[in-house]
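Review form for a predicted model. The reviewer records the input and the model, then writes brief findings.
Reviewer: anonymous (R2)
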Amino acid sequence: MAVSGVSSSRSIYGNRNVITGLASGMDTESMIENAISAYKNKISALSQKRTKTEWKQDAYRSMISKMSSFLSKYTSYRSANNLMSTSFFDQAVKTVSKGANKDLVSAVGRASSDIRIDRVRQLATAATYKLSGTALDGTTAAFGQDKVSASASGTLDLDKEIDISKLNGSLTLAYGGANAQSYLTVNFDETKTYANADELVAEINKQLEGQSVSIGTKTYTGKELLDNVVKAEVGADGKITFADPKKNGVYVSGATGSVQEQLLGGKEPSTEAGKQIKSLTLADGALDTEKMSTLEYLSTRGASMEITLDGKTKTIKLPGEDAVKGLTGADRDAAYVKAFQKSIDDAFGKGKLTVSDANGDGNGIQFQFDAPKGSTFAIGSTKGEILGFGESDRVTSYLNTGKTLGELMKGKDFSTFEKAYVLDSKGNKTDKLATDANGKQLYSFKVNGKEIGQFNEDTALSTVFNAMNSNSDSEVKVGYSKLTNELTFTAKDTGAASEIDFGDDTSMAAALFGKVDTNSEGYSAGQDAIFEASVNGTSLGEITRSSNDVEMDGMTISLKGTFGYQTDEDGNIKYDVSQAKDDKGNSMFYIYQGQGKEKQISAEQLDDGRFVFSDYKTGKTVYGTLDADGKMSFLHENGSTVYAQLDGGGNLRFTTDESQKQEMNVLTEKTAIKDTKAEGVTFETSSDADKIVDVVKQMVEDYNAMAKEIKDAYSTLPAQRSNGAYYEPLTAEDEEGMSESAIKNWNEKAKQGVLFGDRDLASLYQRMTSAVSMTGEHGAALREAGITVNYSNGLTTLEFNEDKFRAALNNDPDKVRDAFTSSVESGAKSNGLMQALKQPLDIYGKTEGGKGVLVEKAGSPLAPSTMYNNTIQKELNNIDSQIERWQDKMEDQIDHYTSQFSRLEQLIQQMNSQSSYFSQLMAGG
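Model under review:
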């Protein structure tokens, strides 16, 4: 019998390193292996089951991917190949504008009548509002100046004594144990001081709140991070520990500056188990401070400013004490600025960026930076707060969109704004007040009366801009130019009804941007498109529309410019100006009421040229006369001179008190002067089917490939070996001695038929077959267009006849379009092909919103939340648990047998020793 030595790395003993069989001569390892073979077989069977289950999951996910790709490609509004979109099929008709002004009007689609655009007087525009960045931040440059200027919000006091802390540098925390997945960094500025450990912990937690940690699919930040992930606390012994509610492990992985000496007891951070630092201990005097003047501090610390001028960034060192030696007050401040200016000139060249002291009185330097008009600059420093740059540590010529609303609206009481409420899944407001990650109240930010975001004083301005530009409910977009430091708000819709409204004084938007002044130069009201058109030779006269895209008898016409009117040398339309008339032919006048409002008044004109008015209260007649300058004078019927005025109700009255008069003006109207020789724009249509043919052809190919994979998956029998047994996944022992190609071939056969007989796939395939086997009007249209159903070898597919399809597009493109795009939800009698196909694919493969049957079953990377929360994953988890239990049982058996055989070896060894001893005694006797 072979004698075992020290067990090998593949031994059942693992790391036990047991010496066996030396005394007994028995192969105990083989004996134990035989004893536990049933356990190993059970584990192998479970491992094979797990592999097979994973194959099933992969097969489902492959089909989900194809279904999702099909839906995204052919039914999504985001796709350029959306066969559910009527506009996609409009490409089948190529429409060309004709005439001298063809470049000013375009069209798509085919009209059911002859349409001509005779002239365009006015294009539709959206309301716009321009606002200088200085309205939000007064330290930035105002547009229109000869230079670009920006200044610090505070001052640099070179004499001021500041407290310098012994504690400086950074502390890095690793979260997630030895295999840390997240790192959190806390920085300690030496100009920040702490009276005790509690204040230090408050600073640590404040910085932790501003970071994030992801655990699974959940990301924690703010107060949630402190409550659920990690939070610094002061213990009774004065040590600072880190609460770890989820027990994932947290320790110090790095330290810079004086942190190691002052908080870690001089120990080097380590990732090695048993050596990890999990708490902080304040060294004696760790929170002590020393006094130092600002000038000395900046000089000894090598302080600098990072300046970005017109895209070029350079670091400029601040002047040292030598630059102002022997000087005091205003002279010293001036010398300091002069020395700094020299450094800037050396870096960028003279005249590119000028620095000065906006104060100039010796009571501190307020940095002001000037650059030529058209330049942009940003100046920052890690010592920005000391330099007077404020909380953001930056001075910019443009609006710093990284600033918070609290910084931009200093002095505003946010509690006066309308509170925001949590919205449910349908976007409806609940009764629960909305808060941010730190538990702070959020407020409703409304534009044009609609909430487009929920913000508070900690929200960055860039977040507000993003919400205005990306929120589907937002009716106003915003753009910003650094070069002009100007915000431009533009209404989403065009037309006279478009508006921009930030609300009243209680609105957060009005508090940030100011109330919109519709009478200011920065505001341009929206206007409608005005044009003349003819249909089948009959003039429709002047037409008004809110958009430049106009639908006329099935054709969509886009107006791009004005024509058909006389213009001046600048290209502006000429107008005849005349006095306005009411519908009775009476002359119109107006009196200005204030606040942009006018009171319109009509009057009959007598043959002698006088106008007849009536006093609202007395009913007496008053005659008005216009002089050559257009000024109106009035005579009462009694012959006295009177003056027009409006009473509190806006009614026309007349008074003898000249001091109470209000000017009455002629109301004029402008009439555009037509160019009678101008040529109208007509349209010519022809077929342009290539794009549609290519997409439909590819759709048919993609459908057939998808249908085949689904049908094959549930109808293909599992592969059998020559002995009648089915192929099963290989175990690690099975693969020993096999070539890679042999393993690959075996696994391909083992994967065959893993989903055989799957009811969900059979049901999906049946629904898909029903969807493409259309009857009725749409089915007939598809067959006429060369799209037919083919059944061969048990597989139902689509066939595509390109010639027939092109002919159908040319003869009746609308009929083909409807056969694809119709939807019962949109009012059609029955669904077209794409909607009919979309329904079963959504039911089984939808990855957004409510999940499809197969997605719930197998999960999909296209729906991340389902990857670890699906039926098959739960099966896999259950199998893993069973494997773990059987492995534990096997380990227990190995321990048991090992212990027994080890005891046997010891007894035999003792017997051998005794036998040897007696043999020696007898030999000696």
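Findings: The first helix runs from residue 28 to 35.
Further findings: The first strand starts at residue 93 and ends at 98.
Recommendation: see findings above.
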